[in-house]
Amino acid sequence: MNEETTPETALAVGRRAAEELAEALALTGCKLPSLNGGFPVMGQAHVELGGASAVTVFALARWIRERA
């Protein structure tokens, strides 16, 4: 992030990144329930990815491997 980036801007970027990932994951049939744009960490936009069930993570891992 550059010097002009504010914490509010970083928060908005993190939220948008989380929304985009949620949309992409929906195409795979996977949903991470606690996927969320978080508060900036060390001045960088941050996305919280945790909170998925093991079944969801296995499905996502399988989907990624099939396309890698």
The general outline is elongated
| Uncertain runs | none
Report how far the terminal alpha carbons are from each other: 30 Å
What is the gyration radius calculated from CA atoms? 14 Å
Q: What's a concise summary of this model?
A:
53% of the residues lie in helices and 16% in strands.
Describe this structure in words.
The protein is α+β, with helices and mostly antiparallel strands and 68 residues long. It has one domain. The chain contains two helices and two strands, in the order αββα. It has helices at residues 7-28, 54-67, and strands at 36-41, 44-48. It has a two-stranded antiparallel ribbon with strand order 1-2. Strand 1 and strand 2 (44-48) form a beta hairpin. The protein starts with 6 loop residues before the first helix and ends with a helix. The model has no long low-confidence stretch (mean pLDDT 88).
Question: How would the blueprint of this fold be written?
Answer:
Elements: H1 7-28, E1 36-41, E2 44-48, H2 54-67
Antiparallel strand pairs: 1-2
